Amino acid sequence: MSHSAFFYGTLLHPAILRRVIGHEGGQLEICPAVLLEHTRHKIRNADYPAVLPYSKSRTLFEQSGRGDLAPEERTVRGTFVHGLSDRDISLLDLFEGDEYTRESVAVHPLGPLTPLSSHSEPRASAPTPGDAATDAYVVPRTAPELPPLNALPTPLPAQTYIYAGPLDQLSSELWSYEDFVRENAWKWVGTGAVNEEYYVEVDRRREMDGKTLCTSIVETGNGASAAGHEKAAIVEVKP
User: Fold this and answer.
1) Where are the alpha helices (DSSP H) in 72-186?
2) Per-residue pLDDT tens for 48-98?
3) What is the rounded CA–CA span in Å between residue 26 and residue 109?
């Protein structure tokens, strides 16, 4: 089954998306897109952002004295990706963890779909921490101009990851992809990556080809324990 998703944070970086799904994404198509009536926030002590429906995030702006946002400010720019497999989605769920829930949304495309492969250029060597911000895999930093909201193209269905953590971990300051690329992308991709712990569970699951281990304790019915039974651990591999 083929899936579509809307990415708005670290997964906007094609190299990070490839790293998570474990392949070059030859079947994927992408285009810039916008999600309405949501806002994207900085999370305390984190490089990645949180997105919330404005109905929930409005409190953050009221507490900061900013007041109600204009409709144009209640938008999240990101990337629409089409052609993800069931396995890709499973790995993305692991990468996002229990801090987010995957939900269905409608996003407006801001350009034509193009192959993900067209957003990469061969490199003679892996990027270093010093040049990661100019990595050829990075999506264009200048987003297309946002049309009037009443003139947006027909929305497309997609899955996205909505923040499920406590609001007190969020700032009313909006997260910037441009700042992430400039200041923090090197931590996530390339030879100097230091945030490898975010990939550990994804890599483990991929190595098991999408299977999980289920461990249960059973009584064997013989032995010399106090109850006349011994216990044994049964490990079962499940898809």
Assistant:
1) 86-96, 177-183
2) 889 999 999 999 988 888 888 899 989 998 889 999 999 999 999 988 989
3) 20
